[in-house]
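Sample 1 of the test manifest.
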Amino acid sequence: MRLRLRRLDTTALVYLALLAVLIIAAILVATTGRSLFSPGNIRDILTGMSVLGFVAIGQTLVILGASLDLSVPYVMSLASLVAAQTMNGSDAMVVPAVLLTLVVTAGIGLANGLIVTVLGVHGFVATLGVGLILKGYLDTNYQGTEGSVPWSFQLFGATGIGPVPISTIVMLALAALVAFILVRTAFGHHLFAVGGSSEVARLSGVRQRLPLIGAHIGSSVCAGLAGLLLASRLGVGSPTVGSQGSYDLLSIAAVVLGGTVLMGGRGSIWGTIGGVAIFAVLDNLMSVMQFNPFLKDVIRGLVIIIAVALYARRRVIARRIRFAANAPGPNIATGSAPAPAPAPAPAAAPAPAAETGGRSQ
Amino acid sequence: MNASAAENRSDRLMTLVRRAVDPKGIVLVLLIVILTAIIVLNPSFAEPGSLMRFIQRVAPIAIVAIGQYFVIVSGEFDLSMGAVVTAQVMTAGHLIGEDDTKTGPVLVLMLGIGIIVGIVNGLATTLLKVPSFIVTLGTMLVIHGGVMWWTGGTATGNPAESFRRLGRGGIEGLPVVDLLPYAVLVLIAVIVFAVWISRRPFGQTVVAIGDNARAATFAGANVWRTKTFAFVLSSLSATVAGVLLAGYAGVHPSVGQGYEFTAITAVVLGGVVLGGGRGTVLGALIGAFTLESLFTLLNFTTVPATMRDAIQGAIIIAAVAYSGVIFAKRRKRPSASDIASAPDDATTSARVAEKPMTTSAGTPSSIPLTGGDGADRT
């Protein structure tokens, strides 16, 4: 209950921002004599949300654990290739191909997680390195698109219920599942605790490595799902489909735009979905208004900086209130396993973490 | 106290080994190994002329790495460097054109752009309290998008010869090296400046802030001014690299792409710790040279060019994992005798680590004489 109230705080702000963007976009689109809310346009926006949404859900997990995942674009490309080559146009191979893709991406996530936790390498460096290794592999072994996706699997990216595409429904279902895991399970609580302060979590009896490894596996699998979706839309696997969209940096931006703290330990999936929606509406607006593609980048960059600057100011205040209100609460009230961990974490950690912006290796 | 000469020598050897296994030392060893391998594969590489050309090629990356060093050691990231390099190259191409008289004014304009980008990055990070990762990601999008929008994203004719000379020309007719590229002179100037400034109060403060900003604030450091200056140095170095690249590689929108990650790789390879507070300018420089010589080595082998990235990725993980292991090992020593020592204060605990070793670990006199501190600071 307490958790939900607090989360509503930041997340509500994200959705207020989304509402503001929607209103502005609706007015601007109306000036061109079209409607932002026509079924076709709504489908465009929701379709635009789905790929970035998958990636950003995974990225949220990793960032909550105070790590990063820069390898997602290459995981996506690899996933699209693995899926398309395994399917190779045959309907019977769809299920095995999807399973194989998920296993491969989970393996990459496991490697990321082990490098970060066991070798103690900063998440930025570890996932940048793994991403570069994957890029080298892709560039060496693939010259262009390969494999082909049967029509039955292409439907995943092409059909919808009314104006809502199937892929977006799957993405939202995944978001609900991950949000449930974060709020209701020990894994989720431990991830928040480790992200807040790994050392304090350890002293509180939380195994710091497992949640972070799990988060990295989750992130890679989510990127794999995004890759599957792209393969289904393109009909083939492509070695550059992930890096072309620069999904690594955009997903991090969406997560932070959604109110999750880059230092870890605080944030929510629904905020991230709000951030993704803001990006999707902006993109759609700029496409409808026929902006120059380079100008789109300029506006995206400005929105990221300004929005996060607004949150950052707010968050400093929100954090203090939270300490005052909650610090004595969980210690006495809930004696259950996960509760003690999150409670001391923020109390001890944020001061140096927030100021220096540094993470000890 | 009354150590004999033989003991002294073995002590010195121990120190040398200790420095060699140091994260910074091991990179130097790696650099020497790679350079030796290149010379074995291709003896003509050792000729002064081709060595000069090698340094000329490394110069932009080395300069960018030195700039990135100041930002990383202060505990921040600068992802906008690659975009700044691209922007400067395109600016030079579009504004100078074939007109030699414009070289001077446009150079001044480019430096101005560099300073402004640095100030915006720095102020947004420090005063608006936006994480630098996000700020510089945003400025990267804005700068890159803005320049491409303005220029149409196409390659234009190369700028006037007087401008390109900086990147591709040099002083000719010298006795040993035959041609001394201006890029090498620029690199030397940047190194001298960077080493000088890292010994000045600014250099010390920026490391202290990266280590523990609160402690540095209590000690009277001005965090926002110092960090902003670090960002200015970073984007100025990207500007200088842009000037050299415009001459060396020509004007093309892809010049500078991915430079931010290459620079971070080089810096991290040189033993500078992400998160700040530890590392030296010369480490970053050695990291840049190691990375580029590794690529040169790969050119002489049969490894396909596309595997460059994979090897860069493996190296960077290995380097950071290695330095993590070394630092963890050092940090464990004091915790045996002094359990209460704070785990977060990197520099202080590293210092603490030096002290008990001299008293309790059984190797008296060798370490304090050589000054473990000197090994860590430039």
